[in-house]
Write the structure tokens for this entry.
Amino acid sequence: MFTKAFIPYGGYFSSPFVRWQGSLSAVHSLPLAGATAKRWLGEKQWDPGMFDYVNFGCTVAQPHIFFGGPWAAALIGCEGVPGVWISQACSTSTTCVYQAAMAVEVGSAGAVFNLMADRTSNGPHTIWPNPNGPGALVDTENWVQDNFSCDPWAGEAMIQTAENVAAQSGLTREECDAVSLRRYQQYMDGMADERAFQKRYMFPLEVAVSRKKTVTIEADEGIFPTTAEGLAGLKPVLPGGVLTYGAQTHPADGNAAVAVTTRDTARELSPSGPEIQILSFGYSRVGKALMPSAPVPAAEMALERAGLSVADMKAIKTHNPFVANDLYMAKTMGLDVMSLNNYGSPLVYGHPQGPTAARCVMELIEELVLLGGGHGLFTGCAAGDTAGALVIKVG
């Protein structure tokens, strides 16, 4: 359990998420994230020099990713600060926040900046030497599509892991469609009043499309309008399955950032805001090809470490690439599946991997603020049948 790690209120942002092969498909994710974070810090009048370390979370390589951590630090204005590149698929943000909280807890850093970015669009094609192959032909890999399609350990695609858990849990097509519709409705709640909820944490992107023209992206791009009738008319992705394209997320591009500091620094940066404390972190790895079940043991570990139960949680957010994630968690932990993920979730707004969990945590914090404070849980799966979870307290 952490006792010294805090997030300044408003000390975070998420860019809009842009659908795969959309407006960000040709934009290098790291310089864009650095420029966005530097502009955000400037608007808040926060000195980048206060940060002792930078965690850069990224899962899809871009040119010069070899220098990812220190390059990201320099781009946001921390030229004399070291940084590290962290990658754990969809749990990347969770791990960045965890590493930052540990650094603050043990006193090795007083303020850590976590910057997460990914571009799943136009994923890199890697050529691997194969000198022993026939004619020394090279091996090739598409970082995004090849890895979404097959876990080299489990031997199955991610969608198949969701169907495996759905079959184990006895999930029906009707349940999946009902929760998928509910998740879209919750996202639309976050769009109400001219996106009042989203504007509590979202920061626009500025993208140069030519030397003379820059466009501003202020809202998510690529949200699919969803109705009960539309969901009912979709065929399962896999023959005999219960999950349609309406019951799974879509790849996306975007970035996000979260500052983790000591209590005193958090108060200095946000003197009038509520106190936000990181209480605990949990992790898990489940059996082969059962990825959507992993968030449950991770959540249970985080709750146990915080000395709390799921009944103590005022709000719960999940990374839910498949609706099976939420249904399994609700059935296993005795939760109302329709009350999870208020105001939005990756199932609807997409999945840039690196920044995905960070956006969920921001929405969790802001929901707790609207509720007058309390405890909140984030949990979400990651590739390799793993998961990460955080328990947050808003005072």
User: Anything to note?
Assistant: The chain has a mean pLDDT of 97.
